[in-house]
Amino acid sequence: MTRRLSLVALALLLLLAAAFAWLSWRSQHEPATAAAPSTLQGAALVERGAYLARAGNCMACHTERGGAPYAGGRAIDTPFGTLHGSNLTPAATGLGAWTADDFWRALHHGRSRDGRLLYPAFPYPNYTRVTRADADALFAYLRSLPAVERANTPHDLSWPVSTQAALAVWRALYFRPGVYADEAGRSAEWNRGAYLVQGLGHCSACHSTRNALGATELMDLSGGMIPMQGWYAPSLASRAEAGLAGWEIDRIVQLLGTGSAPGASTLGPMAEVVLHSTQHLSAPDLRAMAVFLREVPETDASPDSAPPAGAALRERGARLYAEHCAACHGEQGQGIAGAYPPLAGNRAVTMPVTANLVQVVMYGGFPPATQGHPRPFGMPPFALELSDAEVAAVLSFIRGAWGNSAGAVSELDVAQQRGTTR
């Protein structure tokens, strides 16, 4: 038996090595200039690149808290270990020796200047959709930044994920390079929105379910837990979660541009996206994204398998709601327009996945302070004031009151959420 297992292990290693060798050969023969470069020059090219960097929210992963912009170092926790954002400034330790072809190869093929395969925490499965012209503009902007000599922090990943051979196999399974091509029969506005959502916006990186190897489907926007953060990115294909079918375009634009809209607000990781990225996009680009997102094919909502709250749990939750919540959200969950959201009929309250509700009650909920909504109202944290059982009780009451008909939240749900939050 031991000899058989050894032979199996050897065969797997040989398979990994063969896949790595083949992919290495293929990548060396991939053209670096597969599309037309930018026609912009000088300051116009840099300005375009700055805008695109905002659209891709590049600084979020490539800037350490308190560090120089784009100088790298930010730790990115994953189920496989910790990755660190690289230095994108034009320093010797950053992009100083890179060419526009090198940068295009990284975005389009997921391969560094020295030939190393890049980890898909850098979302090249999405960025491969970016045109060569936009890649050149991004590179010009990054080259215009002050050079910051900061060595890249080595990744800390478990074996065999830390090997290039394993990464080569992952790419063979889940990565296909390809610039976005307009879909026939769709308007220019829809195609622009699809390009932004699928490419630089990399919305599927959060709003889709990852498999055991961390892969997602580019067009799967059916929702998923964000690894290591304890937040759920709701489905953009379900009206019961965050689907936008039936919404007015202007309402979607307002939500993406300010973080708040009538009956809706962004919290958690999406609030950061609005703060650092979408609020800076042009009105035509926000509208294009809205047009595309509103037409995402709809899917049925996942059934809520949790049983309804019992009478004792509802009674306890009602008392806690009256004591801690009613002053802002109203005795009937009606909220206060422009300040505190209604809880009655709120789909964020009744989704089967309750992770975000637990997050908000325990750690607070804070929409972004944007140019269009500079002083949003937030919710204070109750992690030190309410026990896990009390959080479960008040949420169970809210999910079953005022016409809401969602299942109860268990104390175990809250404890697990508290334990997975970083």
From TrEMBL:
It comes from the Bacteria. SUPFAM superfamilies: Cytochrome c. Binds 3 heme c groups covalently per subunit. Heme c 2 binds at residues 203, 206-207. Its cofactor is heme c. This is C-type cytochrome. InterPro entries: Cyt_c-like_dom (IPR009056), Cyt_c-like_dom_sf (IPR036909), Cytochrome_c-type_DH (IPR051459), Membr-bd_ADH_cyt_c (IPR014353). Heme c 3 binds at residues 325, 328-329. GO terms for molecular function: electron transfer activity; heme binding; iron ion binding; oxidoreductase activity, acting on CH-OH group of donors. The lineage of its organism: Bacteria, Pseudomonadati, Pseudomonadota, Betaproteobacteria, Burkholderiales. Keywords: Heme, Iron, Metal-binding. Heme c 1 binds at residues 58, 61-62. Residues 44-146, 188-297, 312-402 form the Cytochrome c domain. GO terms for cellular component: membrane. The keyword Zinc-finger does not apply.
